[in-house]
# Entry
Amino acid sequence: MVEYPGGVRADGLPAALSDPARLRAVAATGLMDTGPEEVFDDLASLAARITGAGRAFVTLVDADRSFWKACAGVDLTDPADRQGPVLESYCPFVVGAAGEPFVVDDTAADPRTADHPATTPMHIGAWAGQPLLDTEGHVLGALCVIDIAPRTWSDADLANLATLARSVSAEINLRQALAASRQAQRRSAALAHSLQAGLLPAALRTVPGLQAAASYLPASRRDRTDIEVGGDFYDLFRTHGDNWAAVMGDVCGKGVQAAQVSSMARYTIRADAADTGSPADLLARLHTAMLAQNADRFLTCAYVGFHLTDAGASGTIALGGHPPALIRRTDGAVEQLGATGTVLGVIPDVELTDLPFTLGPGDVLLLYTDGAIEARPRPGTDPKDAGAVFGEDDLARALAATRGLDAAATVKQLAAVLEAQHGGWSSDDTALLALRIDPDGPNR
# Structure
């Protein structure tokens, strides 16, 4: 009986075959019971050719089976035909040897293999195998070569076989690392989606006499698993009594830090909104809070405070470096609203200005982030065919074209216009928030 460092199982095979950590490593390769692949076939063929052996195998071994991921010199393609009981394989010798090679020059004369159940049926005269290892050192199986007649494996044979085994192992480990990276990327994308959802209200607050609708489109990435949480946010909430606030903000940059600043800004605004009737004062408080927290990010923000009246709505807007709001009147005319002001969270002193406004029945107030006025063609598009970058005037014209539409339809049409401009590829996060006074007047 062969002695193994880890002992033997009841069937006399090495206990290492059943090691849970090793079995998890084998399963993690994702290669058991899979079809032929060129990279493994090439390495097996190279092993057979370099050593002059008639056959070569890339073999994975679990607790019960030996599976040939690649076989040179044997014409088998169906995975079901490329496996057998582990008792009928020499690979347990390699697994049990704790990472050392197993080499036999004459299987019939060697007491370890003379009576092995694979020796005669597989016409094994000489056998040499090098371990396939994962990054933790677990033995996944072996790269082996077989000659039908006894032979002496030279030092060069064994050195070349070891090099090729390392190449097989590297390919397996690279695939595992790539799979782990993709899984981590999927988790990161899921977290990004979750964080982004947390920055935006699940549903806009219902304000009697007012229609409200919003949309958010994250900047495009190569695929759905390559997504960073953005810094855009919006909100609609009651401040006190019959007074309401609408907010649109955009933190520079992406990632968790941008999300943290967005979250802080949103909740700071909500916390302070009831204490001041001045949007400019409120944004100044937010600016101070950002400086105190050393946010290391700047923020643009539009804050609108308003209340409904018998004639529509009356309010005040302040902009902290944010694009001006747009008002669409019932006749389709579009007006800019707000003095741009200073971005928040950068320099000690900021200039912020309150500007009053009124809305009549059917009028729409639109807040947006700069993704809506910087829509660019999809990369690779011929600029001659794609047209110019979508700008402020384009957005104003698009808003004018929504005359008569309610808030939800207005946002939907604007989003469609932007998508037509960038072909479904958004260069920046884009948020839209539309408030429309009911055409029949607010019902307070």
Remarks:
- The longest helix spans residues 155-199.
